[in-house]
């Protein structure tokens, strides 16, 4: 899975895969998903829509500090300083516990620190506040890390039922397909991640799905299909982490 992003605040593509072990909106949103707008924190100020959201749920005397702490947390997260992001977001949460972006930053920083329980709680709260499934794949990965297989399967079913952006659905397939491979169910993993076709210009997240599909094909003994997918990945993203390992797995499948 790609690095989780604070979709409203920062694009971060520094990590390609999840730890090895590591929606339909609520009724009051009338079944219309909440869409977070992209923004990067280098500008040095919160964008108007985030400031307005924060102001709606924050006592006026606490608003200046809450804004400053949220911005500091977002900037720290963007810089890969996850401990600082976590600390700043914790203070922002004390000042404004009902702000969705605060809970988002706190949850993602906790995830990057492998503080699984905190991350799960905060990202679930974010989803409840916004109706946005953007981080549901991260929730799935946390449940995988906590060794809660039934909950991983439930989260996958929820993602399929609620839907989401194409990249989010791709990330969910990466997590769930990898989870199934870890449990030895290569056939089910192929059903989740096996590509129906190999397009010329795939999304970055789609290539990661292909990677899981290739692993599943190799585990099933279909070295030819796995090799075809491997070559498509190599052509699109030759520096993708894990390609050497995948190459060895396919070679083993071909010689079996």
Describe the structure.
The protein is an all-alpha fold and 256 residues long. The chain has a domain at 1-133: Serine Threonine Protein Phosphatase 5, Tetratricopeptide repeat, CATH 1.25.40. 62% of the residues lie in helices and 0% in strands. It contains twelve helices and no strands. It has helices at residues 48-57, 63-78, 82-95, 100-112, 116-130, 136-145, 149-162, 166-182, 186-193, 204-219, 223-236, 243-255. Helix 4 (100-112) packs antiparallel against helix 5 (116-130).
Which properties best describe this structure?
256 residues, mainly alpha, Serine Threonine Protein Phosphatase 5, Tetratricopeptide repeat, elongated
Radius of gyration: 19 Å
Q: In the CATH hierarchy, what is the architecture of the domain at 1-133 at level 2?
A: Alpha Horseshoe
Which residue ranges are poorly predicted, with pLDDT under 50 across at least 5 consecutive positions? 8-35
- β-sheet strand percentage: under 5%
Q: What would the average pLDDT be, to the nearest integer?
A: 88
Q: For this structure, what is the CATH class of the domain at 1-133?
A: Mainly Alpha
Count the helices. How many? 12
Element-level helix/strand string? HHHHHHHHHHHH
Distance between the termini: 29 Å
Tell how many strands the DSSP assignment holds: 0
Question: What's the helix and strand layout?
Answer:
Layout: H1 48-57, H2 63-78, H3 82-95, H4 100-112, H5 116-130, H6 136-145, H7 149-162, H8 166-182, H9 186-193, H10 204-219, H11 223-236, H12 243-255
Helix pairs in contact: 2-3, 2-4, 3-4, 4-5, 5-6, 6-7, 6-8, 7-8, 8-9, 8-10, 9-10, 10-11, 10-12, 11-12
